[in-house]
Write a structure and sequence with these properties.
about 300 residues; Dna Ligase, domain 1; 5-stranded antiparallel beta sheet; 4-stranded parallel beta sheet; 9 helices
């Protein structure tokens, strides 16, 4: 196959891991910066160029779209889909899962457990909202945050109100969530590929922090997920239409609670922690998907 990895960071661990995995399985592969692609519609047909030249003919595309360029990156993925390229993660699935509020709405409506969550606006009484969640501490999350950035634990009523007022003044969209004390600053990250949990790790926040992200100095250990955690992760990715995703769960007295579903999960922490070749699993999934697509085309021409 000829595979392209859409990535702005060719030297990033995840990009390189996917690149090497494709080469090991004898595929041709290149890294393409999606922000250097240009879209057009000519004679009612989608056209894509890269760095001023013709976009290469491919069998499959692996989108690694950062949240900071989500709109344009997903537009490129959608253009590729219209040009009949197979994308490992669909544009709609990326957009849906990146919208924290929308994804939580969808997941909760289908029975996925989530922490009690409020979506406030600046006309509401912040004291009343915090009280509805049982009082402080409460978690305040920017809807556009990633890697733990824009996630704050407000341990007092005054601190929570001050943070909310500051976000309101800056016109930042955010959500309020109850703090799950029994999780003790830890969560479980499950990596799902094509309907299967291929790896899992427990992440724990560094002392003095409650965010377990490895980018924030957290630590991780390899774990075997429970049947309920596996069920939750697979159902969540199915609801959001994701074939590749990282699913973050909190262990609570009510069972696993979903924090987030990431359509472009980092591979470094979980591959090094679990010793699982996740990039290889993703390439294997692409091989199956492209073969099935080719078989469907052949059947249609018979």
């Amino acid at each position: 196959m000829y595979i392209a990895i859409l990535s702005r960071g060719p030297q990033l661990y995840s990009t390189q891991s996917l690149f090497r995995a494709a080469l090991r399985r004898k595929h041709k592969v290149r890294v393409i910066d999606h922000m250097r692609c240009e879209m057009a519609i000519e004679d009612n047909q989608p056209v894509l160029t890269y760095m001023g030249g013709k976009f290469p003919k491919l069998d499959a595309v692996i989108p690694r779209i950062g949240s900071s360029v989500n709109f344009y990156g997903c537009s490129i993925v959608r253009h590729l889909e219209q040009m009949n390229y197979y994308c490992a993660v669909s544009s709609n699935a990326i957009i849906q899962s990146r919208d924290k509020l929308r994804s939580l709405q969808l997941l909760a409506s289908q029975g996925i457990g989530i922490p009690n969550t409020l979506y406030p606006h600046d006309t509401q009484d912040p004291y009343e909202l915090i009280t509805r969640l049982g009082g402080p501490p409460v978690v305040i999350k920017l809807l556009e945050g990633t890697h733990g950035a824009g996630v704050v634990l407000a341990e007092s009523m005054n601190a929570a109100v001050s943070i909310m007022e500051a976000f309101n003044r800056m016109k930042q969209r955010y959500i309020l969530q109850e703090y799950i004390a029994e999780a003790k600053g830890a969560d479980v990250r499950l990596l799902v590929v094509d309907g299967e949990v291929v790896a899992a790790m427990k992440r724990r926040a560094k002392p003095g922090d409650f965010r377990s992200n490895l980018h924030r100095g957290g630590s991780a250990i390899h774990v075997v997920p429970t049947s309920k955690e596996i069920e939750t992760a697979l159902k969540a990715t199915e609801i959001l239409g994701l074939k590749v995703a990282g699913v973050d769960l909190l262990e609570s007295e009510k069972g696993p609670l979903l924090l987030e579903v990431n359509p472009s999960p980092g591979l470094e922490g979980i591959e090094k922690t679990t010793r699982v070749d996740i990039a290889g699993k993703i390439i294997e999934y692409l091989e199956r998907a492209v073969e099935e697509k080719q078989q469907r085309v052949q059947q249609q021409t018979i």
